[in-house]
Amino acid sequence: MEVPEIRTWVIFYLLSFVVLLVAIFITTRNDGQRWISLMLVIVVVGVNSFLLISELKRHQSKKALMRMMSDLDGTVSDRDSSRHR
Length: 85
Prior knowledge:
Layout (H helix, E strand, L loop, with lengths): L2 H26 L5 H43 L9
Helix pairs in contact: 1-2
């Protein structure tokens, strides 16, 4: 991962942690607002899952592209610049 990506993930997970702390605080109060905390937990878990899956797909596509580019380099190296052997 590059440094800007790591900073984004750290900020995202800190915000997620704060949201989960708020959900725990709402749950401990007995005001009948447990549905709000449940909704917050569902949203945080859903967004984290979605981002994890999309990051895995992006990594797989980048890996496939690198394989394809390395295969192309091997076939082109047999020929010179005028396309003759």
